[in-house]
Specification:
This protein is an alpha+beta fold. It contains 14 helices and ten strands. It folds into three domains: 65 residues, no CATH class; 139 residues, Alpha-Beta Plaits, CATH 3.30.70.270; 84 residues, Arc Repressor Mutant, subunit A (Orthogonal Bundle). Strands 5, 6, 7, 8, 9 and 10 form a six-stranded mixed beta sheet that branches. Strands 1-3-2-4 form a four-stranded antiparallel beta sheet, covered by helices on one side.
Length: 299
């Protein structure tokens, strides 16, 4: 890949390490598994279309953002993306909470101040105007999905910004951590392409969503002509089944979330079973139905 880019852009330069003060006259890219792994291309020789294409093929480094970082944020940025030293930390394990914002205009300083208020003890690292991460060291009390959901709602009501979070897994701080984060970053990127809702995701929530959208054609056909036929255009029935399964098949809790009587919920469940012959109390059947619902929703 690097050799082809060099042939196409002969003024490009390769590097074994990312410089401490990268030139702002160049676009900088990183290619995992290539030697040398870094390449800089003069901004004056590359078009916008070519830049967009390369951003999809290689990891693009925002040099303007890099030069504005300092302290722990700079240390984590260099460690995760540039092969830098392992940052000092009070705990042996950390996790990364990625966030992505949607708004016509984002006042980054104002938003960053709000994030610092919500996460005063953690490092916040911006990688784009609308995308960044929170580095959380493991401690006794840690934010959960419900708290992040409340923060997301606050941003939408106070700043008119939809914000999505992806809560990563706690991992030991080691040289393997950057690769692990790269995988989590890819998961969040794929989720962002599927939905533009402000939401809070974990791997457990993301995995079935991604799985449902990557089913081979023959499995899609089977679902469409069996489970999904029962739903038809009945969005109410699909929402009922999905909520019932997400509440661990708890009729009382599902009815409360749907604002319906238990008897109404049970009637809808019986209606679905009558149409499909599928018993939702069966664990394997419940998995298939849940994936089918996600497939229809994401599609």
């Amino acid at each position: 890949m690097i050799n082809k880019i060099l042939a196409y852009f002969p003024d490009s330069v390769t590097h074994n390490h990312f410089p401490a003060n990268p030139s702002l006259d160049f676009h900088w890219f990183h290619s995992t598994g290539q030697e040398p792994p870094w390449i800089s291309i003069p901004k004056e020789v590359i078009s916008e279309d070519q830049l967009d294409l390369l951003k999809n093929l290689l990891q693009y480094i925002e040099t303007d953002q890099h030069t504005s970082l300092s302290g722990k944020a700079l240390a984590w940025n260099d460690f995760l993306f540039h092969g830098g030293a392992i940052p000092p930390a009070a705990n042996d394990e950390v996790r990364f909470i990625q966030f992505r914002m949607q708004a016509k205009h984002i006042e980054q300083e104002e938003v960053n101040e709000a994030l610092q208020g919500f996460f005063p003890d953690h490092t916040i690292l911006w990688m784009r105007d609308s995308y960044g991460m929170i580095v959380q060291e493991k401690k006794e009390i840690i934010e959960d999905a419900d708290e992040l959901q409340s923060i997301s709602a606050t941003f939408e009501s106070d700043f008119f910004i939809k914000i999505s979070f992806y809560i990563g897994k706690f991992q030991t701080i080691s040289r393997k951590l950057p690769d692990f984060f790269t995988n989590e970053k890819q998961v969040f990127l794929e989720l962002s392409k599927l939905t533009n809702r402000g939401d809070v995701f974990t791997f457990e929530k993301a995995f079935p969503m991604l799985l449902a959208t990557q089913l081979p054609n023959h499995l899609q056909d089977i679902l469409s002509h069996s489970i999904l036929e029962a739903f038809g255009d009945d969005k109410e029935l699909m929402a009922t089944i999905k909520t019932f399964l997400e509440t661990n098949s708890n009729v009382s809790l599902a009815a409360k979330k749907l604002y319906v009587h238990r008897n109404t919920l049970q009637y809808r469940l019986d209606k679905f079973t009558e149409k499909t012959g599928v018993q939702l109390k069966d664990f394997d059947a419940a998995i298939v139905v849940y994936l089918a619902g996600l497939f229809k929703e994401m599609g």
